[in-house]
Fold DDE family transposase.
Amino acid sequence: MGETISTWKPTCNSSVSVQISNRQTSSDGGALLLRETLDRSGVIERLDQQLIDPRDPSRVVHSLSSQLRTLLIQRAQGWEDLSDTATLSGDPGRAQITKSA
C-alpha cells in the first residue's frame, strides 16, 4: 500500500504581491514558512513543556517558547544566537516571523 501524505496550507494569505516603493523591505520572507512549520508541528510547545523557567513570572517579558522560536528561526537563517536579535530588530518582517502562534 502507498503512503498517504497530508498537505497543509500556511495560515498567512497565500497570494503574493510585489510593489516597488521607498518603504523598507525584508529578505527574510522565507522564514515565514519555517515559522508556520514550527507552529504546525507542535515542536515549540513540546519543547516548552519540558523546560523549567526559573524566572520571576512578574518580570518575564519574553516567554521561553517565544525565545525558543526566535532562536530556532535565527539559527536556520545562519545567525549564531539570540544576541543577534538586536541586530535583526530593524528588519520590517522580523515581528511577523517571530511572533507567537
Q: What stands out?
A: The mean pLDDT is 80. The longest helix spans residues 64-76. The radius of gyration is 16 Å.
